[in-house]
């Protein structure tokens, strides 16, 4: 008898879900990306108990039509791409069509959505991706996704979740990165009934930095903006004497997508190499804008890692942008004269052999 089994659809879905959804923070990240892609002007994120028991992400974007709602939770169902060539020029945050399917497979999921031209909204309900029901309901324009009892049907994965405080911190980090990437969208974040922060959505990145990190950080940053060779690097970097003990506050975005880029990180730190201690790190929020065809975002399920067609030009663009800002802000001593000036004459020395004046 053969030993190879063809797994059932339900088991395959649970395995696939683990690639995209490994903790509450990954659910929030995917839902936030969908909300941003929907053209929202305001997004609210709410969690309870680190997101393990409750997650709600609401937006005022384009919404999902009644007929499309059941398709939204199917694997590889997406409105972002339609053919293989689209992968060469991805301009949206989401594109895999896996986030809602993966979340639905391991939670109790509700989606309320309404398009602007619909008289009524739609409500989808499912538990573990099964028994899907769709009905009409009243709701505001946009989409609200409610995720409850995450991993209720995968106890082994739920067992490996960290303490509520740790999971909350991970979710907070995800929402902060999203807020930094879209200063023109108002984002409100609530954890266990407490409003952690709100951004105004006025398009000012320095205002978002203030809302997230406070006055002390906001007043110690330098604005940068440089374009060269089709690559624009803009954002904020810290003053040389405002240092951190780790890299946690180095934030990089590629065309508005938060990424972990060793190339950009190395470029920033090289620009500071003669200006701070070797064991300290700067604060930065930098967005690198370039042709989507020059960067591959389809290299990892989490979409946090990217590949550039030319790493060197990215390094140079970031390095010279940051270095230019640091050099321009350097305090150089200036010799200035006000009013009547006196020539700087060397005092006359007494003749050789002369006696010193009496004390």
Provide structural commentary.
A hairpin with a 2-residue loop joins strand 4 (about 120-125) and strand 5. The protein is of the alpha+beta class. Strands 5-4-3-6-2-1-7-8 form an 8-stranded mixed β-sheet, with helices on one face. It contains 10 helices and 15 strands.
Short account of what is shown:
By secondary structure, the chain is α+β, with helices and mostly antiparallel strands. The protein has 10 helices and 15 strands. A hairpin with a 2-residue loop joins strand 11 (250-254) and strand 12.
Task: Give the helix/strand layout.
Blueprint: H1 9-20, H2 24-37, E1 42-48, E2 54-59, H3 69-72, H4 99-105, E3 108-114, E4 121-127, E5 130-137, E6 142-148, H5 155-159, H6 164-181, E7 186-191, E8 194-198, H7 205-213, H8 215-218, E9 221-228, E10 231-238, E11 250-254, E12 257-259, H9 262-271, E13 284-289, E14 295-296, E15 307-308, H10 311-329
Parallel strand pairs: 1-7, 11-13
Antiparallel strand pairs: 1-2, 2-6, 3-4, 3-6, 4-5, 7-8, 9-10, 10-13, 11-12, 14-15
Helix pairs in contact: 1-4, 2-6, 9-10
């Amino acid at each position: 008898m053969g030993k190879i089994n063809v797994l059932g659809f339900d088991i395959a879905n649970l395995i696939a879900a683990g690639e995209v959804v490994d903790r509450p923070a990954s659910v929030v990240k995917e839902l936030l990306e969908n909300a941003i892609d929907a053209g929202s002007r305001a997004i609210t994120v709410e969690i309870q108990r680190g997101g393990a028991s409750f997650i709600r992400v609401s937006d005022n974007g384009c919404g999902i039509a009644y007929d499309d709602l059941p398709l939204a939770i199917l694997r590889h169902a997406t409105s972002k791409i339609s053919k293989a060539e689209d992968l060469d020029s991805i301009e949206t945050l989401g594109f895999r069509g896996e986030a809602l399917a993966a979340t639905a497979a391991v939670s109790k999921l509700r989606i309320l959505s309404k398009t602007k031209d619909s008289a009524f909204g739609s409500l989808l309900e499912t538990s573990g991706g099964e028994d899907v029901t769709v009905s009409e309901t009243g709701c505001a324009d946009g989409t609200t996704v409610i995720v409850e009892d995450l991993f209720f049907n995968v106890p082994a994965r739920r067992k490996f979740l960290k303490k509520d405080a740790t999971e909350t911190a991970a979710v907070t980090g995800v929402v902060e990165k999203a807020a930094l990437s879209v200063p023109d969208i108002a984002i409100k974040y609530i954890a266990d009934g407490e409003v952690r922060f709100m951004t105004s959505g006025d398009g000012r990145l320095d205002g978002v930095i203030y809302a997230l990190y406070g006055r002390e950080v906001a007043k110690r940053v330098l604005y940068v903006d440089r374009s060269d060779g089709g690559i624009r690097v803009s954002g904020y970097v810290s003053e040389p004497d405002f240092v951190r003990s780790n890299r946690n506050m180095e934030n990089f975005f590629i065309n508005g997508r938060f990424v972990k880029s060793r190339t950009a990180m190395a470029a920033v730190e090289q620009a500071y190499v003669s200006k701070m201690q070797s064991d300290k790190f700067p604060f930065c929020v930098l967005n690198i804008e370039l042709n989507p065809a020059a960067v591959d975002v389809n290299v990892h399920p989490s979409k946090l890692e990217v590949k550039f067609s030319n790493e060197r030009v990215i390094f140079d663009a970031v390095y010279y942008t940051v270095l230019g800002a640091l050099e321009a802000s350097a305090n150089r001593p200036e010799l200035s004269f006000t009013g009547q000036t006196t020539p700087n004459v060397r005092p006359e020395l007494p003749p050789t052999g002369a006696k010193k004046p009496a004390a």
